[in-house]
């Protein structure tokens, strides 16, 4: 698994130093020399695991980059800056950064915090199922569409999980009913249809991934799977 880190700092020598540290650990590194380029690279590389930001950058500051990224993603963000005042650190955490390190710093401390953030990012990825822009987090039973949380009832979540785990298979209404509602459920199989309709609506544009299989039931389709 390639772990990808984006480093954004307008000081070339410092940016290269940090990038070298990361490459020695085996990480894939992307570099940005200003805030605008950082946002552009992030949008073009959806598999970035960690974003390392300086604050005082041209075009867009680290604060502004963080604010924009947090509108669309919960990627791990480490602020690496010369701003050592408590109010700056508080501002960073208020904007959603995960770690705040001030310059100068030691290699050991820096890498320890980077590795900790990446472990969290990898664990989150392993505990989630991604289908295009739809992500199911199995650890806390939440669902996101393009990094925005959607609300599902417990039964809708269970239904979606069952369909995803059996993606590509046509499942009968009885199979779904027995697996999601349980064998002791005495309701009608039309209950499945009602919940599928509700689930499709909640999934917005990804509702079309749940295909009706005539004469059988439903199937979770996955493109290019």
Automatic annotation (TrEMBL):
GO terms for molecular function: phosphorelay response regulator activity; transcription cis-regulatory region binding. The lineage of its organism: Bacteria, Bacillati, Bacillota, Clostridia, Eubacteriales. Residues 4-118 form the Response regulatory domain. This is Stage 0 sporulation protein A homolog. Residues 126-222 bind DNA. May play the central regulatory role in sporulation. It may be an element of the effector pathway responsible for the activation of sporulation genes in response to nutritional stress. Spo0A may act in concert with spo0H (a sigma factor) to control the expression of some genes that are critical to the sporulation process. The modification 4-aspartylphosphate is found at residue 54. The keyword DNA-binding applies. PROSITE patterns: OMPR_PHOB, RESPONSE_REGULATORY. InterPro entries: CheY-like_superfamily, OmpR/PhoB-type_DNA-bd, Sig_transdc_resp-reg_receiver, WalR-like, WH-like_DNA-bd_sf. It comes from Desulfosporosinus orientis (strain ATCC 19365 / DSM 765 / NCIMB 8382 / VKM B-1628 / Singapore I) (Desulfotomaculum orientis). Gene3D superfamilies: 3.40.50.2300, Winged helix-like DNA-binding domain superfamily/Winged helix DNA-binding domain. It comes from the Bacteria.
């Amino acid at each position: 698994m390639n772990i990808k880190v984006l480093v954004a700092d307008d000081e070339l020598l410092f940016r290269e130093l940090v990038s070298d540290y990361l490459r020695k650990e085996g990480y894939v590194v992307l570099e940005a020399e200003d805030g605008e380029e950082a946002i552009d690279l992030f949008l073009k590389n959806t598999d970035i695991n960690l974003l390392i930001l300086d604050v005082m950058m041209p075009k867009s500051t680290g604060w502004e980059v963080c604010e924009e990224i947090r509108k669309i993603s919960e990627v791990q963000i480490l602020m690496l800056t010369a701003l050592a005042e408590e109010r700056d650190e508080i501002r960073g955490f208020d904007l959603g950064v995960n770690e705040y390190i001030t310059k100068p710093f030691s290699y050991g401390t820096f890498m320890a915090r980077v590795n900790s953030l990446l472990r969290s990012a990898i664990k989150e990825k392993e505990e989630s199922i991604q289908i295009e822009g739809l992500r199911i987090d199995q650890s806390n039973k939440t669902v996101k569409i393009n990094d925005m949380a959607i609300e599902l009832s417990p039964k809708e979540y269970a239904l979606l999980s069952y369909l995803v785990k059996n993606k590509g298979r046509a499942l009968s209404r009885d199979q779904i009913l027995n697996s999601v509602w349980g064998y002791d459920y005495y309701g009608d199989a039309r209950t499945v249809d009602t919940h599928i309709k509700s689930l499709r609506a909640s999934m917005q544009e990804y509702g079309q991934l749940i295909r009706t299989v005539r004469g059988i039931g439903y199937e979770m389709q996955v493109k290019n799977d």
